[in-house]
Amino acid sequence: MDRRREIRDFLTTRRARVTPEQAGLILSPLSGARRVPGLRREEVAQLAGVSVPYYTRLERGDAHGATDAVLDAIARALRLDDAERAHLFDLVRAANAAASSGATPSRPARQPVRPSLRNLVETIGGVPAYIRNARLDLLAGNALAQALFAPIFDSPARPANAARFTFLDPAAPAFYPDWDAVADQNVATLRAEAGRNPYDKALSDLIGELSTRGGDAFRGRWARHDVRHHRAGAKRIHHPLVGDLTFTYETTQLTADDGLYLILCTVPPGSRDAETLGLLASWNSPQPANRSAPDITSHGQ
């Protein structure tokens, strides 16, 4: 990835989405017609308290000498959220590191999931629990998580990957009723990781695969330069076995395992979603060999 171009495109897209009114600027009637709805470079420079040539140089990708204070000021001027601010710092850090070293640094291969950690996840009961990395590879999960996300875990491509499933598997739109939102989320998560770890070959390969095979659905989202932290929220699925289910997820970064995250999925006790999840759990619990399919007639099937 071209670090200078990444900085340029990120700042340009962030500048284009902030209007002068949102930034608190008072425009003179004599200022003339604006060619773009967003801020001009000189307006960002004014808001950030830096010179126009300095900001112009930074937006062109030359981040040499950019201090944390300057980046913070630009982040405020562009109304960046926490994920976007962190992404800007990551891009500048990577660009300066590459410029100072003159070479592409190697990145150590990530370690697989430790057996003890895998065992821990598999013993979690009552809720779906799984481990993923920042590339959205699903690396391990308890029985309920593997049942809940069976279309992803059962994908022939390995490791199972949420973004690959979303963009390349024809079953994804049926599994995700809110497919567009899920697709946006996946790309924004990958974009943030690309800023943090620009030399992760597996990530670059995944992005290349999705760009080639995912068509405009992926490429258009990637070009937006949106980033986000994938920490908590709600997700709605249509499970092929038990039907509609909405759950919330909480993400915990595993400090002892760099780049790995534990995700727990929960539903309100006593709710219809809890009943549906319980049905899925009962179907995937150990049963005699001649077990029959669950009765799903009361679940909208």
What does this structure look like?
- The chain is of the alpha+beta class.
- 49% of the residues lie in helices and 12% in strands.
- Strands 2-1-5-4-3 form a five-stranded antiparallel beta sheet.
- The longest helix is centred in the N-terminal third of the chain and has 20 residues, at 82-101.
- The relative contact order is 0.11.
- Residues 288-301 have low confidence and may be disordered.
- N- to C-terminal separation? 46 Å
Overall form:
elongated
What order do the helices and strands follow?
Answer: HHHHHHHEEHHHHHHHEEEH
Number of helices: 15
Give a brief rundown of this model.
This protein has 301 residues and is α+β, with helices and mostly antiparallel strands. It has helices at 3-16, 20-23, 41-48, 52-59, 68-77, 82-101, 115-123, 143-148, 150-153, 162-168, 172-175, 179-196, 201-213, 215-224, 272-283, and strands spanning 129-133, 138-141, 232-239, 243-253, 260-266. The chain has a five-stranded antiparallel β-sheet.
